[in-house]
Design goal:
The structure holds 3 protein chains of 3 kinds. Chain A is an alpha/beta fold. Chain A has a domain at about 125-355: Aspartate Aminotransferase, domain 2 (3-Layer(aba) Sandwich), CATH 3.40.640. Chain A has helices at about 35-45, 65-80, 100-110, 110-115, 125-145, 155-175, 190-200, 215-220, 245-255, 275-280, 285-290, 345-385, 410-415, 420-425, 455-475, 480, 510-515; strands at about 145-150, 180-185, 200-205, 225-235, 260, 280-285, 305, 320, 325-330, 390, 405, 445-450. In chain A, the strands form 3 sheets. In chain A, strands 1-7-6-5-4-2-3 form a 7-stranded mixed β-sheet, with helices on both faces. A 3-stranded antiparallel β-sheet of chain A has the order 10-11-12, with no helix packed on it. Chain B has helices spanning about 15-25, 30-35, 55-65, 90-95, 100, 115-130, 140-155, 170-180, 200-205, 230-240, 295, 340-380, 410-415, 445-460; strands at about 75, 135, 160-165, 185-190, 210-215, 240-245, 265-270, 285-290, 305-310, 315-320, 395-400, 420, 425, 435-440. Chain B has a 7-stranded mixed β-sheet with strand order 2-8-7-6-5-3-4, with helices on both faces. In chain B, strands 11-14-13 form a 3-stranded antiparallel β-sheet, covered by helices on one side. A two-stranded parallel ribbon of chain B has the order 1-12. In chain B, helix 8 links the parallel strand 3 and strand 4. Chain B is of the alpha/beta class. Helix content of chain B is about 35%, strand content about 15%. Chain B folds into 3 domains: about 10-60, no CATH class; about 75-85 and about 360-460, Alpha-Beta Complex (Aspartate Aminotransferase, domain 1); about 90-350, Aspartate Aminotransferase, domain 2 (3-Layer(aba) Sandwich). Chain C is an alpha/beta fold. Chain C has a 9-stranded mixed β-sheet. In chain C, strand 15 and strand 16 form a beta hairpin. The longest helix of chain C is centred in the middle third of the chain and has 18 residues, at about 215-235. The model of chain C has no long low-confidence stretch (mean pLDDT about 90). Classes of the chains: A alpha/beta, B alpha/beta, C alpha/beta. At the A-B interface, helix 1, helix 2, helix 3, helix 4 and helix 5 of A face helix 1, helix 2, helix 3, helix 4 and helix 5 of B. Strand 3 of chain A pairs parallel with strand 16 (about 365-375) of chain C, so a sheet runs across the interface.
């Protein structure tokens, strides 16, 4: 069927007051169980026994609403949000916004998961431990690595865990002072630089060559006896697989450095290419991306960090182990970096990811990879000819994999409409705002799209049609596009400078009232 | 042979795939993967369990695994120590199960206006609880919040040492230690083993112009309330150090927020505010400060502010950002910002809106009453010292059984057999406390539950030790 | 408070280029260009830039000079300008540009928009320096100064943001002095002339996923801190700081009164030589460990040869090529669009030894590996 563009779309716009404005003093949303009379009597005046200055003098200033009004308010706000399950979210490139199956939410809602305390006797959580263990086995197989931890709370956190492991490795060798540099590339995720910097390393960044692939000659110039490791994303967000990635590894290994593989962009390579065969010592996955768990509006999430046997001694504790009969938690690893998060990590993400993977199986993962790259290349072909649009490193002779970084530079030059404007306008078609690029914008006016395997050919056709439509609008009536969004839940911010002004910004309602004199 | 058509993969139907391949002008995905050199291609088939293609089979399998667990609904639990069993109102679950919130990500505050408003309201309500004007979008957990606060402090005053109470959660301390490496020293300060209160003499001896910050928790990990906050603040400020205090916000309906006794940065855990424990996966950490550029500039999290739009009277939201250009210290940027726990922040907002001021007070008061009641019952048992610490507690007490000649491990095994999860064994984490356990009492515990606990412990102690 | 926009158009800018003449300074060159059929480019570019201000026309006070120096272009774009000064119509000179700039400074405009090329930028710079925010609308031949927006429209867009009060950051940008005669004979001989204060682009980009990248001001401080830390570890080493906005940030951070356009010597974090020439440098670096600190000058990516000729092949030979430290903000490197850094020391052998991959310090303990060509 011909592409359907939602011409009459209108997002819910409730003009919803801030919850404090809905407050009706004296109202209650939920009542708390009162202790029995005996309990109260035996306890006595507990507040009077509090130390001087520790007793709260006034009740906290929270809004007061009856239950229905709280529910309605937040339902209104939810209607003013475009979760990927309800929209054509090809938009959020690098984020892999695949379908988050509802059945997995039912598993999470099961009290046999939700009401587990992490300090319970191991015998009482054998089911949970088994899920962790099985999923670790799956991740080991997919990556080819020897050991896994699920403790990190997201991709960045897994990269930070990698940096901590690299640091521990060199500390144990007594060479940390000398091995103080980590190499990355400009198109790798910013955390591949920021996390090692946080961990104390100096960062060396490589630029790409003319094809848009990290420059291997630059790498040769960058490595030395100071190289602790390389942290690289492959494929990078521009969608190009580095065909010499194993040579990069060899070069770094050649100076004794370690190699970490940022696999946030793993979706197209499940069963196709692994970290192990490329020679990496460590890798990670964004479990909430590749393995179909919901993004939560920016979390909760999980980063699975994987490494070789040699590096596993540094993994955070405790680790889930199986002795042939029972699953156990083992914290007896003296060289462990300790912990990067309390308890066992975001167990709900692991549960959902395990469920998703068990439904897909090896063939399903491979199909995921296949369709991801087919979808993306189909979309790229359909985008051809849209005025003002190009894509990074066109004509470099390398096919894109699962993502493309487009550029609206020509549109901006011709009409003054740039990527931020297009991105605001796209919401007027019921489509979530797209991902432009990490900062800094090496590719000008960027737009990064990822039609992962969830999206149908009709979704892709719709998306292309909308992009074409907006391009036409920009050439016809640029100021209309620059004033978008028009039918979204809210209109354009009108005073961005105020957000950077200490006299004007307000991160809380109380700050807002103070600064607006109310 | 890929015959299966997957419900989660829209284009896996063969005719659709063919149409698309034709459009691209290739035969299969392998033509695209041809960009990957042959020697890097994975040749085999992943060795994975046989898939359960139908939703029914998969669900049955996973639920089968889950039902091997005994939850805190199956057994009576008194576990705490960083994550606690509280009642989650139905409306909270309803809201965070909504696909709109659940599956959103990083869209701007136009199509995702609702998410931003919910996060702003969370910051606003948490801000009122802690009496501070700036609250971040939540980080991974309390531990990371504390760790981040230490680095924020180091950046803003250029100093390289933090003093941490020895009574803080050892797991949180482990996260802080790793995060402070390599350049920020973490030094512990002693606490009194009877009262639990921070040893001010030790603090004073360790404070210097090198101290970036002092960190303690209130209530402490071991349950007691620190009453010397104002004095600690004074001592820290005298040497120009920041005071960071970690809190359990479920206490802030009845306890004074640290800002009111001198804290500069407040951190804590959102889990008690409407989040199921999820085996330790329900955590979300918040960081709050005064509304001063020197603090705002140091947050490595996204801060969302309320702001006008082109339509008069409409609320809009955007990122608040302040870049300090005169560094006090040579820190390389603001750590890293990534996906953390936004949805849990929304849960906390809904929870606080339902509870309101009176609800938080009722919650806090009731918890303290139950804890005091439990202390009385358990303390009356022969050989049992409850609470171990003399200072008042909020929701947790240390119960010491040295006087019984038994170990906590034995006791807990016996309690388990009686359908009870006993308090967390502290004998490894705090050997100086002997055979002690950390017991938590919240609004989910009724009088009969506590009585049952006391009876069970009594029962175990008066019988011969149970063999492992 | 109505925003005030100052406008200066150099009507003859860019005229030579279309007819194959390089540069367009001097009455004779202009006469020849006109004879060859050249038409003024700048007025059209000016109108294009002003049109991008759109509906602001009514709400902004536009102040300019008579006739083709701005008045006509402003009216054409829908403005009702305030006109200052007087000129000889059809015979405008660089002095007119300088006078106009001074008059607009007196009028206290919020932004001085000038339309022209390197010469125009020089005139504005010598008149007002960094006292006023300024921004160039390109209308010249290949422009070397970094004070120009990429297109007339983008200049207009940025001007609009300034006038709406939505730009909070300004940064120094280089004005280059091109020897026009040499230029016409095919030799590029450029040197750093001075700086203008231009509005920072990308002023308010939101990033809802991982936060914004470091702004230029913060980046400059970070780079400075990196170099200063280096200095603190080697107090006897002589640091030879070339001109440029980034090296200037190091001098500012050290709190030393270095020269804006010259080469300064720093040792033990103190200024030990200001605006030194090649001979001085050679004398001072005899047997003394030294580091030459250079940055990208102008919009073409030169690190040697465009304003730091004092850092001669002789100096580099004595100091040692291995002791060359390149500093630049990441944004400046990105603005090169992948083109390599360039060197032009005057000696092919020295140029050759500088070629290859070098580290550029872009922040504190943060470097970029980038290609250098001759």
């Amino acid at each position: 069927m011909t592409a359907r563009v939602r011409k009459d779309y209108q997002q819910a716009r409730w003009n919803e007051p801030i919850i404090y404005e809905l407050s009706l003093p004296g109202s209650r949303g939920v009542l708390v169980p009162e202790p029995e009379h005996d309990v109260q009597e035996a306890a006595g005046d507990v507040l009077a026994r509090l130390p001087e200055g520790l007793r709260r003098k006034e009740l906290p200033n929270l809004p007061e609403l009856s239950q229905k009004h709280v529910l309605a308010h937040y339902l209104h706000l939810s209607q003013e949000t475009l979760g990927s399950n309800i929209t054509n979210d090809i938009s959020e490139g690098t984020c892999t916004m695949k379908y988050n199956p509802r059945v997995n939410e039912m598993l999470v809602a099961d009290p046999h998961f939700g009401e587990l305390h992490p300090d319970q006797d191991e015998d009482t959580v054998q089911g949970m431990l088994e899920i962790y263990h099985r999923f670790a086995g799956i991740i080991r197989e997919i990556s080819g690595m020897d050991e896994v931890t699920f403790q990190p709370g997201g991709g960045n956190h897994a990269v930070y865990t990698a940096a901590s492991v690299v640091r521990a490795y060199w500390m144990l060798k007594g060479q940390l002072e000398q091995r103080n540099e980590i190499i990355t590339t400009i198109f790798s995720h910013p955390c591949d630089a920021a996390a090692p910097a946080t961990a104390g390393f100096k960062v060396i960044t490589l630029y790409p060559d003319k094809q848009g692939v990290p420059d291997i000659e630059a790498l040769k110039a960058a490595v030395s006896e100071h190289t602790a490791a390389i942290f690289m994303t492959n494929p990078e967000d521009i969608g190009i697989y580095n065909p010499r990635v194993d040579e990069f590894v060899k070069i770094v290994h050649g100076v004794g450095g370690l190699c970490f593989y940022d696999q946030a962009n793993a979706n197209a390579f499940l069963g196709v290419a692994r970290a192990r065969e490329a020679g990496f010592d460590m890798c990670h996955f964004n479990v909430h991306k590749t393995f179909g768990t919901p993004h939560g509006g920016e979390g909760p999430a999980n980063g699975a960090f994987c490494c070789t046997q040699e590096l596993s001694q540094f993994l955070p504790v405790p680790r889930v182990e199986y002795d042939g009969k029972k699953y156990r938690l083992n914290a007896d690893y003296p060289n462990s970096i300790g912990k990067v998060r309390d308890f066992m990590g975001t167990a709900g993400v692991i549960l959902r990811a395990y469920a998703w993977t068990m439904m897909m199986g090896a063939d399903g993962l491979r199909e995921t990879a296949d369709i991801s790259v087919i979808n993306n290349n189909y979309m790229l072909a359909k985008m051809e000819g849209i005025r003002g649009l190009d894509y990074a490193f066109r004509g470099n002779g390398i096919r894109r994999q699962e993502q493309v970084r487009y550029t609206w530079e020509q549109l901006k030059q011709d009409t003054g409409v740039g990527t931020d404007d297009v991105n605001n306008r796209i919401a007027d078609y019921g489509i979530e705002h797209y991902w432009t690029s990490h900062h800094p914008w090496v590719i000008p006016e960027p737009m990064t799209l990822e039609p992962c395997e969830t999206y149908s050919v009709d979704d892709i056709d719709e998306y292309v049609a909308v992009i074409r439509q907006i391009s036409d609008e920009a050439y016809r009536d640029p100021s209309f596009v620059k004033a978008a969004p028009h039918v979204s839940a809210s209109h354009r911010r009108s005073d961005d400078a105020a957000l950077d002004d200490p006299h004007k910004w307000a991160v809380t309602w109380r700050a807002h009232l103070k600064k607006t004199g109310r | 042979m890929k015959e299966t058509v997957y419900p989660y993969i829209a284009n896996s139907a063969p005719s659709v795939k063919k149409r698309m391949l034709d459009e691209i002008g290739i035969k299969s995905a392998d033509d695209i993967f041809a960009e990957i050199p042959e020697h890097l291609r994975y040749k085999g088939t992943l060795n994975m369990p046989k898939p359960m293609l139908s939703e029914y089979e998969m669900r049955r399998h996973v639920e089968g695994l889950l039902h091997r667990n005994l939850s805190c609904q199956d057994h009576l639990s008194f576990l705490g120590g960083g994550t606690w069993q509280h009642y989650v109102p139905a409306v909270v679950d309803t809201i965070i199960e909504r696909d709109e919130f659940l599956t959103a990500y990083v869209g701007d505050a136009y199509a995702d206006h609702g998410k931003f408003q919910a996060m702003f309201e969370m910051a606003s309500m948490v801000g009122e609880l802690v009496d501070m004007d700036v609250v971040n979008t939540p980080t991974y957990d309390w531990a990371n919040a504390a760790a981040i606060a230490c680095r924020m402090s180091a950046r803003l005053n250029g100093r390289k040492e933090v003093l941490v109470s020895a009574s803080v959660s050892p797991k949180r301390l482990a996260v802080v230690r790793n995060y402070c490496l390599p350049d920020i020293r973490v030094v512990t300060v002693a606490f009194d083993h009877r009262s639990g209160q921070l040893d001010l003499k030790d603090l004073e001896a360790k404070l210097s112009r090198e101290t970036s910050a002092v960190y303690f928790e209130n209530p402490s990990y071991l349950g007691f309330i620190e009453g010397q906050g104002a004095k600690i603040a004074e001592l820290a400020h005298k040497v120009g150090a920041e005071l960071i205090v970690g809190v359990d916000p479920s206490s802030l309906g009845v306890l004074a927020p640290p800002a009111q006794y001198g804290a500069d940065i407040t951190v804590g855990e959102l889990q008690p505010l409407g989040l199921h424990m999820q085996w330790g996966g329900g955590l979300a950490g918040f960081i709050a400060t005064r509304d001063e550029p020197k603090y705002v500039a140091e947050y490595p999290s996204l801060l969302f502010g309320i702001t006008p739009t082109t339509k008069a009277g409409e609320y809009g939201f955007g990122q608040v950002y302040y870049e300090r250009t005169s560094y006090a210290s040579r820190e390389r940027g603001k750590d890293f910002i990534g996906t953390t726990t936004a949805l849990y922040g929304i849960a906390a907002a809904v929870y606080l809106a339902l509870m309101g001021p009176q609800g938080m007070r009722d919650l806090g008061l009731g918890i303290m009453q139950r804890t005091a009641y439990a202390a009385k019952l358990l303390g009356a048992l022969p050989g049992v010292q409850a609470p171990h610490f003399t200072s008042p507690s909020f929701k947790e007490i240390v119960v010491n059984i040295d006087g019984t000649g038994r170990t906590v491990a034995e006791l807990n095994r016996a309690l388990l057999a009686r359908g009870i999860f006993g308090g967390k064994d502290l004998s490894q984490e705090f050997p100086e406390l002997g055979q002690s356990a950390l017991y938590a009492f919240t609004e989910v515990h009724q009088k009969d539950d506590i009585a049952r606990l006391a009876l069970a412990i009594d029962d175990v102690l008066t019988h011969a030790p149970v063999m492992a | 408070m109505t925003a005030k926009l100052g406008l200066i158009v150099n009507p003859f800018a860019g005229m030579g280029g279309r007819v194959g003449l390089k540069g367009s300074d001097g009455k004779e060159t202009i006469r020849r260009a006109i004879a060859l059929g050249a038409r003024p480019e700048a007025p059209g570019r000016a109108v294009e830039a002003l049109r991008a201000l759109g509906d602001l026309a009514s709400g902004v006070d536009l102040v300019t000079y008579p006739y083709e120096m701005g008045e006509e272009e402003a009216r054409q774009a829908g403005f009702s300008p305030t006109v200052l000064g007087s000129i000889a119509r059809g015979e405008t000179t660089p002095e007119d540009t300088e006078r106009a700039a001074r008059d607009l400074r007196e009028a206290q405009v919020d932004l001085l928009l000038f339309v022209g090329g390197d010469g125009t930028a020089r005139n504005v710079c010598s008149a007002i320096g960094r006292e006023l925010p300024a921004l160039g609308v390109p209308a010249g031949v290949k422009i070397h100064s970094a004070v120009y927006a990429t297109t007339p429209r983008s200049a207009g867009d940025l001007a609009r943001l300034v006038l709406e009060g939505r730009v909070g950051r300004y940064q120094d940008a280089e004005v280059m002095d091109i020897d026009e005669d040499a230029f016409r004979q095919g030799r590029v001989s450029a040197r750093l002339y001075g700086y203008l204060k231009v509005p920072a682009d990308q002023a308010h980009v939101q990033n809802m996923k991982s936060g914004r990248a470091q702004g230029d001001e913060a980046a400059l401080v970070a780079i400075a801190e990196h170099v200063i830390e280096d200095m603190e570890g080697q107090m006897e080493r002589l640091y030879i700081l070339g001109p440029g906005t980034t090296t200037k940030a190091i001098k500012d951070r050290l709190g030393i009164a270095g020269t804006l356009l010259g080469v300064d010597l720093v040792q033990g974090k103190r200024l030990v030589g200001a605006d030194v020439g090649e001979r001085d440098i050679l004398a001072r670096t005899q047997g003394v460990p030294a580091t030459v600190v250079v940055t990208i000058i102008g919009g073409q990516g030169y690190i040697f040869g465009r304003g730091n000729q004092q850092l001669s092949p002789g100096v580099l030979a004595q100091v040692g090529i291995g002791n060359v430290l390149v500093v630049a903000t990441r944004q400046k490197v990105i603005d090169l669009r992948g083109a390599p850094l360039l060197v032009d020391t005057g000696d092919p052998a020295t140029d050759q030894s500088l070629r290859g991959y070098r580290r550029i310090v872009t922040g504190y303990h943060d470097t970029l590996v980038y290609r250098v060509d001759g």
